[in-house]
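Ops channel
N.P.: pipeline sanity check, posting one input/output pair.
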């Protein structure tokens, strides 16, 4: 009984403490989410650097991955970084899914063991640059769910219209990156956002957010940022400091918006039916 009280008080102190205090005590789920967010941001920036500056890579690296052209290095390298990030978060998803309580093995793995996980993250990033290009192409097709584009140069007129980069383009790129990371982070910690029935009470030893759902969101986010960086087109790279340009991106956004509207309307209809049934049940009980 005393151990349970001590654990609950310990987690309450960690949750209410400052960001620096949580960073100093590395084994807690509240600090872990920021660490995973930083790792996701690092992957995003590495993928961007590979896309924009990968053409200047050494010929040895070019031979290592079997890429015959500079364009292939830009898009192919971006997908490889994304694949490494995706693999890491899928491993974390499979190893933490189903976690319910604090102070368990899965909770310790999610919230601690940072040296092991950082090493795993680096190893997976390196391995993705050793796999054949055929696997990378398959991953690219899976990442955009078939949203392809013909190989003609006319598809990327906006990206090829100018070779200059102004400050507005750079600022827009930075804002888009931050928005992407923040949206992924906020969605990952809200594991009950798709549930209509919320739990009324939460036990003191329950995990603060769904670990498996958290990592799954970041895994899908890894696929999404790769598509943004290559403009949903695995055949050509786009202009430096740009993100999500081209006609493929336009049609993907249109389809996504319509899907979002359909899901939102369907959720509202289902929620209204649930409330109506619940209200009818209460009236019958009162009668």
């Amino acid at each position: 009984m005393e151990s349970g009280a001590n654990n609950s008080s310990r987690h309450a102190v960690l949750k209410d403490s400052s960001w620096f205090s949580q960073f100093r005590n590395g084994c807690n789920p509240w600090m872990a989410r920021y660490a995973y967010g930083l790792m996701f941001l690092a992957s995003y920036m590495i993928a961007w650097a590979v896309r924009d500056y990968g053409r200047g890579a050494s010929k040895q690296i070019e031979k290592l991955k079997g890429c015959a052209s500079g364009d292939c290095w830009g898009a192919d390298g971006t997908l490889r970084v994304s694949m490494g990030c995706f693999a890491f978060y899928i491993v974390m998803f499979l190893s933490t899914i189903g976690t319910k309580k604090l102070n368990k093995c899965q909770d310790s793995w999610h919230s601690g063991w940072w040296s092991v996980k950082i090493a795993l993250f680096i190893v997976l990033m390196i391995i993705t640059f050793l796999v054949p290009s055929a696997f990378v192409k398959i991953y690219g097709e899976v990442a955009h769910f078939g949203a392809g584009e013909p190989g003609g140069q006319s598809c990327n007129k906006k990206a090829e219209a100018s070779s200059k980069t102004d400050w507005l383009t750079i600022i827009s790129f930075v804002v888009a990156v931050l928005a992407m990371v923040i949206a992924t982070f906020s969605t990952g910690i809200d594991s009950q956002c798709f549930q209509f029935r919320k739990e009324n009470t939460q036990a003191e030893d329950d995990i603060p957010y769904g670990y498996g759902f958290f990592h799954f969101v970041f895994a899908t986010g890894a696929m999404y940022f790769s598509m943004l960086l290559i403009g949903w087109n695995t055949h050509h790279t786009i202009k430096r400091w740009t993100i999500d340009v081209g006609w493929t991106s336009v049609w993907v956004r249109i389809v996504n918006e319509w899907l979002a509207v359909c899901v939102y309307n369907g959720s509202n209809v289902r929620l209204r039916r649930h409330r109506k049934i619940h209200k009818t049940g209460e009236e019958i009980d009162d009668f």
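N.P.: looks fine end to end. Confidence is low (pLDDT under 50) at residues 68-72, 146-163.
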